[in-house]
Design brief:
Helices cover about 50% and strands about 15% of the residues. The chain is built from 28 helices and 22 strands. The longest helix has about 35 residues.
Length: about 900
């Protein structure tokens, strides 16, 4: 393979990372101390035998074997002793009477038994039979020794009288057991009671030994009282059958009570000891019936405040608040991008379907082992609610993936497009090529480097604890390999989309500085903590998140989003499948083999593609549809701008100056180009041709016809003296060349300054306004005439009328298009001729430019925020003295 020196260096670093990970990680993960030499069937058998020996009808329960962990206790041990030292001591057996890991056999009542479970263990307000609390959990240590029996509903054993346990309180041993066997269960149940208030020594001195007391009580038909010393002996009897080192325990207290609303009295015996190596106090509670039956055995550890409580409480709240704000900002950006039509919805929809489906299926697979969807009718309602919840969660995940995929692609493609190069290849289905081959090899290498970095951080921070909530992957979900791929897939996709494409792309768009952008992405990784599992304390968790986040950012800066996505996905898989090889005999082994097979196949495909695939130069680039559409619109905008500039160049660049005439003009198209037209042409020293016109329609077509008419007028104005004849000639030329249906309203006239006359003709246009100084009013001059292009021949020629107007000093002539008087305000009301004429009538002693400015300001004030819907053109002429 044609690798560069830098690429060979990367491969060597990946190999070192893999070696470091596989060598060092077992000494850093507390699960490496597990001893699974015993099979699940053997554990189940031991637990069933022990439960049956306590008088329970095992055949009425369905057992399920799992592996559990006391996570809080394990966290405390790691933080206090140091994780590597704890692992060493636990492997060497130097720590006594602790069981952070245990086998758990859950005995759930069969469907038939649920209807018949004794209600004697139910107190007022407790749930009816059939709930999960009816289960009995038997816990065994790794050697299979019984350590706990959790019975939250206080289910009474079928054999409530345990004669061996009762016999343990008598000094005579077998003699006492033999004597008890002669007594019926009902007699013992009625006669034996618990009384820890009275002194056993005083009673013994008066009535003799415990056995003689029993005989005397039965003869006299008095209750036989179990004193404090008797209860401790019975508790010690049961402790002797557990894996706890009883010689280290001391008797502490006894609490008495009853089973729910029944008359069955119980006593809870507490034993305590302080582990000198840990400085932690351990307590074991044994709950007994007066007849010797065992209700439960539980243990607890005094953990103390291993970490500032405020930090552990504030940190999740702060993290969730920042994530919420980020999601809110993402939604806002999404809507802005939608408005700008800068969103490619097709690939975003595919990502949404894949990501949302992966999240929903992974969630469902993790729930399946906990709920019996098929065989247990009592859980059908719960199952339906769970399925509805999973569906809603999957829909929400799909929506989130759609939003962040769309804006991530849009922002990054606009400001950092090289980060999407490999993504574009995959999007076009171009998989078998050298860039994708190098991607596979590079991602596997980087995944091992990340795993090595994590192992190094764990080695450097021995008092950082790994918070283990579930020990083995195969117990977390149905079909663990599929669950692993789906869970890692949507988790990796979430991190890459949210932190790198969206946040990183937006930061780079604002700053154009990779250093600042990198710092922002590392900060986001610190908040999200893109590492497998939970760690603590907070300070160490933040530190390890910063290091892993920095490594991910470096990968993104050096390569691209797909390299980061695949590298991070494989890194998650390496760490999550670690229980498949650090624990001997584990059931997770096949999951690890499956995942390594996937990595091996990816590596082989990478080698094959990098050798046989197409070169990068032979691959076509990719441009999303919305980019092409926006580029086309930009081209059209530029062309329209050019057309507008050309059209404006056809209008008079500067209003001609005359000794006895003031001229001012305004032309404001509604769009980039318009169909309004005005012109001022000097014919000689005394005559000026003035014209104004309005082409039907708007936009660029109207602008073309306006340009055409301008050319006609300029070619005829010096050859034809009469305005009417000129319009007739113009109509013939226009009709011969223009499309049918297009017409132009036009006014053409000539001002003769020497004779002080204005003679003009009108082709269907707005009236010419004359404001005479003598009359002081506005006259609307409307000579007859059809619009140019509406008719030909005599039908047009016979309608054109030409009139001559005598002008005095300070007289005003105003030519305008309908866009002036038909301007609409926000209430959709026309500006109107009445307002326009009244405004002009008040313009005494005002220059032509001043009049034009006054009209323009009044129009702007009237229109307000309403959109201009038509071109507006106006020419003001004033005779000077």
């Amino acid at each position: 393979m044609n690798f560069t020196t830098r690429e060979y260096g990367l491969l060597l670093t990946g190999l070192l990372g893999a070696v470091w990970f596989f060598v060092m990680y077992p000494s850093q993960d507390p699960r490496s101390v597990l001893d699974l030499t015993m099979e699940k069937n053997e554990i189940q058998q031991k637990a069933a035998q022990r439960l049956e020996s306590f008088g329970y009808a095992v055949q009425q329960f369905e057992p399920e074997v799992t592996f559990g962990v006391n996570s809080e206790f394990l966290d405390t041990l790691q933080q206090q002793i140091g994780r590597p030292e704890l692992i060493r001591q636990m492997k060497a057996g130097e720590i006594e009477n602790i069981a952070p890991f245990y086998w758990q056999v859950t005995f759930s009542p069969t469907i038939d038994r649920r209807q018949n479970i004794s209600g004697s263990g139910m107190s007022e307000g407790e749930e009816s039979p059939g709930s999960d609390d009816e289960e009995i959990e038997m816990r065994l240590d790794m050697q299979g020794r019984f350590i706990e029996m959790l019975n939250p509903r206080s289910i009474v054993p079928l054999q409530a009288v345990n004669r061996r346990a009762l016999a343990s309180i008598f000094d005579t041993g077998q003699e006492a057991e033999k004597y008890l066997s002669t007594l019926t269960d009902s007699l013992l149940t009625q006669q034996v009671i618990i009384d820890v208030q009275r002194s056993s020594r005083r009673v013994q001195s008066r009535e003799g030994t415990a056995l003689s007391r029993l005989e005397t009580s039965l003869k006299q038909k008095r209750p036989f009282r179990l004193f404090e010393e008797d209860i401790f002996k019975m508790g010690s009897y049961y402790l002797s059958q557990t894996g706890w080192e009883i010689s280290l325990l001391r008797s502490d207290t006894i609490r008495t009570g009853r089973l729910g609303n029944s008359n069955i009295s119980t006593a809870t015996v507490r034993y305590e000891w302080t582990n000198p190596a840990l400085g932690k106090q351990q307590s074991i509670d044994v709950r007994l019936m007066a007849t010797g039956g065992l209700i439960g055995v539980s243990s607890a550890y005094s953990l103390g405040d291993t970490e500032g409580t405020s930090y552990r409480q504030i940190w999740p709240v702060l993290r969730n608040a920042l994530i919420f704000l980020f999601c809110l900002a993402g939604i806002i950006i999404f809507f802005f991008r939608i408005r700008a039509r800068a969103i490619d919805t097709k690939p975003a929809l595919i990502v949404a379907i894949l990501g949302g489906s992966a999240a929903a299926i992974a969630m469902l697979l993790s729930i399946f082992p906990q709920v019996n969807f098929i065989t247990d009718p009592d859980s059908w309602t719960t199952s339906i609610m769970i399925l509805i919840g999973v569906g809603i969660s999957g829909a929400a995940a799909s929506l989130a993936f759609f939003v962040f995929s769309a804006i991530g692609d849009s922002i990054t493609r606009q400001h950092w497009p090289e980060k999407l190069n490999l993504y574009d290849y995959l999007r076009q289905g171009m998989i078998f090529n050298k860039p994708i081959g190098y991607l596979m090899i590079r991602s596997i290498t980087l995944a091992f480097i990340l795993a090595g970095v994590l192992s190094l951080m764990l080695w450097l921070i021995p008092y950082l604890y790994i918070d283990i909530s579930q020990v083995f992957l195969h117990e977390q979900a149905l079909w663990p390999p599929l669950y692993l791929m789906l869970y890692n897939g949507w988790a990796a996709l979430s991190i890459v989309l949210g932190i790198f494409l969206v946040l990183g792309g937006q930061a780079y768009a604002q700053t154009k500085n990779k250093v600042i952008t990198s710092a922002i992405m590392v900060f986001a990784c610190t908040i999200i903590a893109p590492i497998v599992g939970n760690y603590g304390p907070v300070a160490q968790e933040v530190l390890i998140a910063v290091v892993i986040g920095t490594a991910l950012v470096l990968i993104y800066l050096r390569w691209d989003a797909i390299t980061l996505l695949l590298s991070y996905f494989l890194f998650l898989g390496l760490v999550r499948t670690s229980t498949g090889w650090i624990v001997e005999g584990t059931m997770d082994g096949y999951i690890f083999v499956f995942f390594m097979t996937v990595m091996g196949l990816l590596f082989l495909f990478g080698i094959w593609a990098s050798q046989r695939g197409k070169e990068a130069q032979a691959l076509s680039g990719f441009i999303p549809d919305y980019v092409e559409e926006l580029a086309q619109e930009e081209r059209i905008r530029q062309e329209l701008q050019i057309a507008r500039e050309v059209q404006e160049s056809f209008l008079p660049v500067k209003t001609p100056q005359f000794e006895h005439l003031e001229l001012a003009a305004l032309c404001k198209p509604a769009y980039e180009t318009g169909g309004d037209y005005y012109d001022v042409i000097r014919l000689d020293d005394n005559r000026i041709a003035v014209t104004i016109g309005d082409v039907s329609g708007k936009g660029i077509q109207a602008a073309f016809y306006m340009t055409f008419v301008k050319g006609i007028l300029h070619s005829l104005c010096r050859e034809i003296e009469s305005p009417a004849e000129l319009l007739k000639k113009t109509n013939r030329i226009f009709c011969d060349n223009a499309n049918r249906g297009v017409f132009i309203s036009l006014v053409y006239g000539i001002i003769d300054l020497s004779r002080k006359e204005f003679y003009f003709a009108r082709a269907g246009h707005n009236p010419v306004l004359h404001v005479g100084t003598r009359a002081g009013k506005v006259d609307e001059l409307r000579p007859s005439g059809l619009g140019i292009g509406l008719a030909t021949g005599s039908a047009f020629d016979d309608t054109i009328e030409e009139i001559t107007l005598k002008l005095d000093s300070d007289d005003l002539l105003i030519l305008y298009t309908d866009g002036i008087v038909e301007a609409l305000n926000e209430n959709h009301t026309f500006y109107g001729s009445h307002r326009f004429n009244n405004l002009l009538a008040r313009q005494e002693n005002v220059s032509a430019a001043g009049i034009l400015d006054t009209v323009a300001k009044d129009l702007k004030s009237y229109i307000g925020r309403a959109k201009q819907h038509d071109d507006m053109t106006m020419v003001v002429m004033k005779m000077k003295k």
